[in-house]
Design brief:
This protein is mainly beta. It is built from no helices and 28 strands. A four-stranded antiparallel β-sheet has the order 3-28-27-26, with no helix packed on it. A hairpin with a 4-residue loop joins strand 21 and strand 22. The two termini are 17 Å apart. The N terminus is likely disordered.
Amino acid sequence: MAIHSGCLTQTPTSSRLEMVWGRRGIGRGRFQKPRAITIDDKNQVYVVDMTARIQVFDCDGKFLRSWQTPEFKHGKPCGLSVDNQGNLLVADTHYFRMLVYRPDGTLLTERTIGGTCGPGPGQFGFVTDVVQDSNGNYYISEYGEYDRIQKFNADGEFLFQWGGHGWKPGQFVRPQSIAVDQEDRIWVADACNHRLQLFDARGNKANLLHIWGKEGSKLGEFKYPYGIHFDGGQYLYVSEFGNHRVQKLTINGQSIACWGTHGRGPGELHGPWALASDQSGKIHVLDTYNHRVQRIIF
């Protein structure tokens, strides 16, 4: 084993920093604690920050356009993903709903799911993330009193839910991020339990398949895994808010490398919330408390 960027990794040349862009501010191309990132099939990068702005960039950080969510007095979104039609799905956290936008920022109001706080079907606590599977079903995670995931069909109709607050298998304490793999299995970053959980939710219920991790800083251990991203191939990437790093795992859950260490300089991270990959497989890490994006080959 060799030391690389403050983390253990199997190969000392397996990862490298390629680009750093963005800085603190409220103007175009600047960030105020950015919390979610996603990239579409045209290599457009979407980032939302604590100003409730959704800014769009190319993969080199060139500003393209922006808009704000309809309401943001009570809090800001903390989850983004792209659906099967190329629209942007937004976890509008403190307004208990999922919003859908066209890439140009047009809000598709008829596709909103939720909007009411509560424990019932189609009601939410604080929404953390939303993804869509290959059949068009939506999975929406939430934290707070409920700590669960709800599944909806392509028309937004409630199907079932699973989870609940706790540390037992299948329960969650802040499921901050979710991802869908090529088999439509659901990966969950169970942030405050410092672990990943994998489910088969393709039928009428969610079956727990595997649990990985515990609190710690070694390979295969996690400290507040806030972001999880499946690259569409063989690997899963996890951004750890508490360990200020990114881990790379196989689709079988084996941790094989990590990148990053705590700090303010290039190649250093401070509370990274999320990450995404572009069409060339490069990883874009949302370096939240450094108010920037770092692009790595990993």
